[in-house]
Amino acid sequence: METRDGNERGEFPGMDAAKEIGQISYKALQKAKAMIKPGVKLIDVAESVESYVKESKYGIAFPLNLSINNEAAHYTPSIDDAKVFSEKDVVKVDFGAAKDGALGDCALTVDLSGNMQGLLEASEEALKAAISVAKAGVEVRDIGKEIEKAIIAKGYQPIRNLGGHTVGLHELHSSIFVPNYDNGDETVLEEGMLVAIEPFATTGKGMVTESDVCEIYSYDAGVQVRTKEARTLLGLIQKNHPTEPFAVRWLASALGSTFSTYAGISELSRNGALMPYPTLVEISGGSVSQAEAEVIIEKDGCEVVTK
Ligand code: CO
Fold first, then answer.
1. Which of 146, 148, 165, 170 is catalytic?
2. How remote is the CA of residue 163 from the centroid of ligand 1, in Å?
3. Which of 13, 23, 26, 157 is disulfide-compatible with 17, CB 3.0–4.6 A?
């Protein structure tokens, strides 16, 4: 998942936990990739992959994101979502499993149109270029510079207000932001850090903005709420999703009514109980591709854990 700025640093979950979570996250991503075909429902892919991870006795770091064409990130199917993949779609899949606060985060793009291969290669090559320079002591601006160079060389633009991030314990986006261009940030990566690197390439201008659609939230704070529906949802969220982001559809059975669920969630969001993650769209309507891997920073390089 992307971040638009950093916050406090979380404790590193540990090498072994990061590798274990990386492997299951990568497997889940490949399962999603294999299912994405024209005519298939998005919700079937999301539910099947999320169930696979739960049946494998892992938690979920954030809901399966399936963002299409000009959507860059943060779309996950709604309750009873009827949407199907079309043969014109460029689909970003972004997902992570979790265990004891260790969080996976990886992404890939599927081109159902068959004519956006160059756009896919742009983000994939940018990710490779970033991995080849990531090591202890490197400044994040230098990673951004490699990403930008690789994407522009393919004739596309990097998305400049999205980027990668360090990953802490129970903290998908910890202190450090890893830009997709040279933003002048001289922050240095250190040995042992867990970092998600995530280049986005676009046929558009290279900026995203929030849309009105929001299907992902995370718990922020306990607040007083007016309606019984909001109280019921808040109790469930505090019990089942106290830390990691969740999908509204995960709460569908609590009230049994789709309308009441969305009304309750929107009340909680307005009152500051929830942090919203609206779907992010490219401002000029450009198609977007994404590639993401999680790596551990080493003295002379880095090790990809999402493989
Ligand atoms: Co991420």
1. 165
2. 8
3. 13
